[in-house]
Amino acid sequence: MPKSSKLVIGAALCAVLATTTVAYARVSRVQKDVATQRLAHMNLQAFQLGVLAQMMQGRQPYDPELAVAAADALASLAQQDWTTYLLPGTSSGEIETSRAAASIWTNMDDFLARKQGLADATDQMLAAAGDGLEALTAQMGAVTEACGQCHRDYRVIPAN
Hints:
Elements: H1 3-25, H2 29-56, H3 64-79, H4 103-106, H5 108-129, H6 133-154
């Protein structure tokens, strides 16, 4: 490859990196914090689902008190007002660590309706959590389906 081609490619790479750096540098500290808080909220939900899933998979004995506590925490998280996590400028295209698809902001009503579906499903799970493993398991499908409906359209999976 001629030296001039290498210089052109090198200059193009530098321009792309500089543009990306400038784009991410325009994100405010508040926007970064909001994206971090949103991810932490999702991780808390995943943790509570994990507690329940271990019981359902037989890796942990069913414990009605623990099941109710995990289902209660999950329902509380799902009932919270998520609009504080939806500050414009916090999508995956704007903040490197964000997994939120930009389509959330163009389809906010649909996103919030799906969030309400999760809240409803977790409330039903909470009502059944202390009634035995079979009752708990029967409600898990609705919860995971509510999660999946949102994630299919509104979460960006990072390329590895």
